[in-house]
Amino acid sequence: NKLIKNAERDRKSFDATIEFWSAQLAAEAANITKQRLRYIEAAERELKICFDEMTGGRETPSLEYDHSFKIKPEDAADAKRAQEIFFSQLMSSHDREIYAGATLWGIHKDDLTIRLDGKNARNFASQGQQRSLALAMKLAEGWVSALESGGDMPVFLFDDVFSELDSTRRAYLSGKIGERQVIITTCEP
Known about the structure:
Number of helices: 8
Largest sheet: 3 strands, antiparallel
Strand order of the largest sheet: 1-2-3
């Protein structure tokens, strides 16, 4: 970004180094994307289990990786192909990036969308559903972390988690965290 910001004053340095920087950025972006996809797959599996148990299977959550790069899912999963696509896009947008004063593409602009029954939960889920999804995501993250670390569960930190949960979901959470290290704050006794 510093090179891009300085490009108007020093286009020669930008032109001399941008291919090198773009190649490095593309290689790292491909590797990080591959790891993120692997993590999202594991987190989605755990999220579905947790949310199904919490809600009795009435709704189905899913996770979607939103790439800032224009890339198909099958290409994103192939690190070599992803690197080629990322490099091509990085190299094709220099003038727009110089005009904007920042990178327009990159994994730092990627996002994760949580869906509930196929709809974007941010836009369509009720406040209670969003709270339940956030809780299920936290639990799923903990289980994925434990699976990757050989079984050691992380400490769970829940801030005012019970305020918007019904009694069924409160009971579910209490049952799930029973033998784990948990810190919970609440406004209720």
